[in-house]
Amino acid sequence: MKKLFLASAIALFATVSAQEFKPAAGDVTVDLGVSGGLGNTSIGLADGGAAFKVRYFKTDKLAYRFTMVLANNSDTDNSVTNVVSKDNDFALGLGFGAEKHFTGTDRLSPYVGGDIMIGYASQSSKSTFTPTSGTAVVSEVKGPNTFGAGVRGVFGADYYFAKRVFLGVEAGLSLMYSSEGDTTTSVTGSPDVTVKGGSNFNISPSVVTGIRIGYAF
C-alpha cells in the first residue's frame, strides 16, 4: 500500500510540475512571431509585419488555433531630383485549425496540426516627376491584388523556458490556390495599359513565422 501511495504521489507531482510550465485543458496561449534572435542578436517582427497565433486547449493534448499575419508597408523616396516615388503594400492572412500535442518533457511540447487558410494582398506604386517648368508627369501602377486559399499541415514545438512563457518554432507544407488580379499602368498623357491576371495551384514547404514567443493564460 505504501509503495502504491508513493508511486501515485510521484506521478501526481510530475503532472503538477509539468503543468506549471505547459498549458492544460481550458488554457489559452497567445504568441507573436519574430525574426532573428538565434544567429542574429536583433529581434524584430517577422516578414516586416505582425504574425499572431491564439490557441485554446480543449484538452491537455488538443488545441484549436487561430493565426493572423498582417503587413502594411508604405515607403516614400525622394532621393532623385524632382521625383517623388511612393510604394504601398498590404497583406492579411488568416488561418483556422487544430494541433495534436505529444508528451515531450515537462518543458517541451511537440505537436502536429493543420490549418485552413485564406489571404489577401494588394500593392501599388506611384511616381511623380515635377519639372522646373511645365506639367507634372504621374506614373502609377496598381496591382496585382491577390487572393489565396488553401490548407497547410504543420509540425512544431514549444519550449517553456519559464513558467507559462515559451519559445516556439513551426514549419509546414501547404497546398494553395491563388488568384491574381489585373495590373493597370497609367502615365499622364497616355492611355492606361492593363495586363490580365491569372490563377494557379502550388505545393510548397514553408517556415511558419520563424521563432515565436508567447504566454499561456
Structure description:
The protein has 217 residues and is mostly beta strands. It contains 1 helix and 12 strands, in the order αββββββββββββ. The longest helix is centred in the first third of the chain and has 20 residues. The two termini are 38 Å apart. The N terminus is likely disordered.
Rg of Cα set = 24 Å
Shape: elongated
Give the integer mean of the pLDDT values: 82
- Poorly predicted spans: 1-18, 36-47
The level of helicity is under 10%
- SSE sequence, one letter per element: HEEEEEEEEEEEE
Q: Distance between termini? A: 38 Å
Number of helices: 1
Structural class: mainly beta
Biggest sheet record: 8 strands, antiparallel, barrel
Spatial strand sequence of the major β-sheet: 1-3-4-5-6-8-9-12
What is the quaternary state of this protein? single chain
Number of strands: 12
**Beta-strand residue fraction:** over 45%
What are the SSEs and their pairings?
Layout: H1 2-21, E1 28-36, E2 43-45, E3 50-57, E4 62-77, E5 83-101, E6 108-129, E7 137-142, E8 146-162, E9 165-180, E10 183-187, E11 193-195, E12 198-216
Antiparallel strand pairs: 1-2, 1-3, 1-12, 3-4, 4-5, 5-6, 6-7, 6-8, 7-10, 8-9, 9-12, 10-11
